[in-house]
Write a structure and sequence with these properties.
2 domains; alpha+beta; 7 strands; elongated; 6 helices
Length: 229
Amino acid sequence: MRRFWFQLHKWTALIVGLQVLAWIVSGLYMTFVPIETVRSEHNIRKAEPHDLRATPVKGLPVDAVKALGGPVTRLELAEVDGRLSWRADISGKPAALIDDASGQVISPLGEEAARRIAQADFAGEGRIVAARLIDADPPIEFRGDLPVWQVSFDDGASTNVYVSPASGKVVARRSSTWRVYDFLWSLHIMDYRDRENFNNWLVVIAAAVALALTVSGFVILAYRFLLAR
């Protein structure tokens, strides 16, 4: 029986040892680095809230809203790129930006607007070095809706700010810290492609083998104590 537990411990250690190490290393990194730093929240420029009471608002652009294809599920008045605009969602997804003053649809936003929005959002050191519209095959660091503007800065963290051309919102901020975190997260949950599913069978099986490793280790420890008496 003792030989069985020694063999079980040895082979489970060979099978799952590297994954246990990956869990420990990734877990240590994720607990050591604040999530606010991972999300680049320290580099978000704090904007003063816009007081709509002091701003003349023309009103809901009914004609432009009616012309949108599909059911409009949300309308939001916000300041986008320095002017008041209505954000319209169709079936729960951002679809159009409508200028409040003219009542005209101003989306999708172009490169210059995306650059201004990203620059206004970014409070870190560095300048914009590139901007490109991604409408297919996005990098693994962005897993949101397409198309999206990727605005790149030359700061030390190689920050990318992603701006939605449909809503004018900054939808993601990615830095070298986030990329390391995301890679370790994929090792932690063993979803190496989508990096979202932590209920996959691979991680369940690895956890079961790791449990066998732990139990066999305790049994061997008990044998050691008994032999030492």
